[in-house]
Amino acid sequence: MEKETSQDTGRPYIENENIRIFSKDTTEDDLVWHRDYEDRIIEPLADTDWKFQYDNNNPESLKRLFIRKGVYHRLIKGTGELKLKVIKL
Fold it and tell me: CB neighbours of 35 closer than 8 A, spacing ≥ 6?
């Protein structure tokens, strides 16, 4: 079975079970404001300079975060690849 790519899904990441990988080539235009259909926890798997931002808030360092369903948010690109663990609740 071939590995799914971001071009296959139209999303700015590839996903393998609960791990999402954002390429170093991801563009700012790919990282749109969005909201999720369920609560989730995200956690970077390594130190990163990528940032996270809730609507109407300042960007913050990307760390283990709880994201409530329906709340607008986005990632802000840093350098290098980003690997996130995503736990849907």
Answer: 69, 70, 71, 72, 73
